[in-house]
């Protein structure tokens, strides 16, 4: 059964604490790896939360860092235990972007730029089905259905009444013209986008073709921010075979500034909503 504990976030927080202990000790990741007879890449992956960490790993690292306070050790051991529990997404089997789902599930806000398609958190089920089948032509019907179900489940964060995700998305006009599925699917999708944009915690903006070149031409990305101030923001860039997660403050700042330029060049939310409604009528014939 999936736990309410978010293992991705637990791994991330645990990794940050282990990095802090290493730096307090004045050791490099290479020195720690040599002491434990492991690869330096393992230490790096443990610290950035990209792999699960065992209680034995925590015990060994605390030994290297000479942590004498048993309360600290016990707390880190518990975090390691929690980090190995399953999130809701694990019930769907092997999901290639499970790290991202874990971060998104715990995020307080998400700023996203999508140049080609409607963002996943705002997609209808028929649109998602047509998009996945078209984007991954070799995918089996079962795997396609699994991806659709995961995408629909992710949307619970947007529709939540108690703790909704604050979502701000900027889309290129191309996403409104690209005919994914039938004209009726596109019409329903854009009408759904209009309705979602009316929610107080959802903002949708469109960058029209007439605005020419803009900072988003390099591709899709998302910036996730978290309710706990100790959790650094993350820039997520989706790839074909692997994804990129940027957490250094300088990288996050550069993408945040770029996002401000995107918002400034886009139509304001009201005009964007009107334009999306107009495109929905055109797709409907």
Automatic annotation (TrEMBL):
Gene Ontology MF terms: DNA binding
For this protein, the record's SUPFAM superfamilies field holds: lambda repressor-like DNA-binding domains
Q: Where is the HTH cro/C1-type domain?
A: 18-73
Q: Which Pfam families match?
A: DUF5753, HTH_31
Gene3D superfamilies reported in the protein's UniProt record: lambda repressor-like DNA-binding domains
Q: Which InterPro entries match?
A: Cro/C1-type_HTH, DUF5753, Lambda_DNA-bd_dom_sf
- What protein name applies here? Helix-turn-helix domain-containing protein
Q: Organism source for this protein?
A: Streptomyces odorifer
Identify the taxonomic lineage of the organism of origin: Bacteria, Bacillati, Actinomycetota, Actinomycetes, Kitasatosporales
